[in-house]
């Protein structure tokens, strides 16, 4: 009897999770696709919007521009991230944990903030631009367009490559390096012949993540592109810029975006399978060594130099947040003041509370659902749970702006009127971030022997009790690490939130974007600093409760 009840509960849980996926992910995608293939004027089946895209050089060029940006950012991030991860894990570096926290901090803000800060630094009236022209008579190349987009995105994305490769290097058996040294394979030769091939699955995963995030980012090109229009900007402008009159065309572009990212995702998976391998139980992890004087100086200059460059925009925004401003925080003036912060708390304080409330609810739901889905997929294999596992991978290939558009098309009706509410923002955040938490939870649960569950059940504990009192506590450290990182990505979410927010549900990132768009630089800098404080506190909490203070992927 007990066995029958337990089975019914897990079947019910599977059906509920499947229903949630069908309602909040599959249904909006079906609505999106239907909008793209039906004529908005006649209601007949038509491919006119796809024909419009591919027959118009300007539209097709935006897709090529996005590929250029994504490829360039992925290449540049790899060139920076791999050497940084290698030096960090193979050699002793002073202030090692601080260095890692600074690397992560440099990535934990919306990329468009980096673009905004670089305009303040290297724009036509930027402080560095004016200094070089006045003091040295040197005209700095323009920051606008392709070069500026790649610069801003690379300095936000290289930490991702660093984290993935660091995770691979931490799991590498030092005996492999010792064996290669005994065979005369040392230095750069060992790096290319042994280290990189062993790290290749992680490197490919990092390249995929950087590529897809660069393809999906619209804030940076919108801020600094100046005529260099990318695919996400076209989607956003088609949906918002035309005041809703071109929704079918926006749907068609969104479908093309999903197909493109899916193709790259499948290509990456196919290439990764070629490099997939398993390692036997490791004898001991890689031992960090102290480099000689000259190499040691280079290692520290390179490591801290990269971090200093990537943190420069954020540091400058913090500095500007304390400068005096004119009426409404529009123009910076000589002297310092807290007026920007006072104005932010008086006029935009609700955005801070909204960030805590909306992102906090989303985080709780992500953790609960990720644990449940991981348990269903790993411990309760079956047809339904196999379908859930497959559906959990779909959000990997959906850009944030597409998620926002699909949800609006699905729930802007009288039956389920979610548009304009906090609920639709929570749903969007869950859809966007839950795949990563599910994958990490599945990996952690897969390492816990099923014999522990069986032993608990043989002592009279049901499967639900075993999950709550034994399995989840054993997963806790990994869940906590994932929760902190999920929280940081949630509070910096913009691409879907910018489409879904209302005046009452405006979050910090949306408030910053709004302030930048209106030219109220004082408010924008103050809000950016507050968001950075959120991030720093989150990382300090992680460092406090983490076993070794190390973050990797």
Give the strand tally.
2
Question: What strand order characterises the main sheet?
Answer: 1-2
Strand percent estimate: under 5%
Shape verdict:
globular
Structural class: mainly alpha
Radius of gyration: 25 Å
The residue-averaged pLDDT reads 83
Question: How far apart lie the N and C ends?
Answer: 43 Å
Q: Please give the count of helices.
A: 23
The parts where pLDDT drops under 50 for at least 5 residues are 1-7
Largest sheet: 2 strands, antiparallel
Tell me the series of helices and strands, N- to C-terminal. HHHHHHHHHHHHHEEHHHHHHHHHH
Helix content: over 70%
Task: Explain how this protein is built.
With 553 residues, the chain is an all-alpha fold. It is 75% helix and 1% strand. It has a two-stranded antiparallel ribbon. A hairpin with a 6-residue loop joins strand 1 and strand 2 (332-336). Helix 1 packs across helix 16 and helix 1 (2-37) packs across helix 17. The protein is globular, with a radius of gyration of 25 Å.
